[in-house]
Amino acid sequence: MVLLLLGGLLVLFICYDIIQTTLAASNSGPLTTRLAEGSWYLLLCLHRRYHLPRLLQAAGPWITMGLFLTWVLVLWLGWWLVFCGEAYAVVGSSTGEPAGWVERAYYVGYTLTTLGYGDLVPGKALWQMLSVVAAANGLLLFTLAVTYVLSIVSAVTQKKTLALSLHSMGGTPQAMLENTRGEGSYAALAEKAEQLSGMIISVGQQHLSFPILHYYHDTVQDRSLPLALARFHQALSVTYLCCPDVPASVRLKLGMAMYAMESYLNVLSGFVSPAETRPEIPTAALASMSECGRDEAGVRTCLSELDAQRYLRAYIEKDGWRWAQVWNLQ
Prior knowledge:
There is one protein chain. This protein has 330 residues and is mainly alpha-helical. It folds into two domains: 2-146, Helix Hairpins (Orthogonal Bundle); 155-327, no CATH class. Helices cover 67% and strands 2% of the residues. The protein has twelve helices and two strands; from the N terminus they run αααβαβαααααααα. The protein has a two-stranded antiparallel sheet. α2 packs antiparallel against α3 and α5 crosses α8 (225-242). 39% of the residues are buried.
């Protein structure tokens, strides 16, 4: 009876974790969260010590597969404990003798995968019904897992698309400003920001629904979303907060993009803790960012006072990059 109760609790727990992770449009289940965070923390420590960017690049797919394997093993263990709760829960189909421990594990395995070889069968009616429940449970697990993986692949593609779109404006915040300044109205920046605002919000919500997306790292800067968003936020903040003379129509579009960035940063608050100190703004980058009526000291103060900077710095560093790389300084 103890094994039956223990197994039942384990099955309920892993089912909750699976459903919370795959169907809830919020944080992942408790086991999934700890497994993913622990794996990433270990790999990130190795990267910081030995500089292993390829290791981080491989992390996302392998964490996903490790998660799926964990679900299968825990569910298998839970149902195995359930079917070990009584001597005649599983018997030989020809002999009627109770199955051993290993045979019960074998029975649970082919029941969960719905293979149904038939050399072992459930005993009384209760165990027959539980076998049906176990088979349905296994089918549900594999269906949800496949759907989850396909959704992640699609979201990773959109994540890279957003990063490339942002980087197309320039490889640094100052380059973004220079390339979109025009005659000083920054209309090109506002137009691009308006186009990308919806995608930023969408990708942010995908990270909320699938937190494992945070662990899909790209070694190429132009495809790195953390770097792209940090660079875009610097350029956007300078234009929106430090340039009082931009036209009202431009300011409206920039404000929409600022809202999109705030929405993304709200999602980040569940993934990273803000850095203890605000990041420094390199002096070399200030000269080309101080053409909006603010001097270099004014631009530095404007950016340094933003709370978002602490989250962006933490986001950059947790993805394996350094804040200096936002400005393309090594």
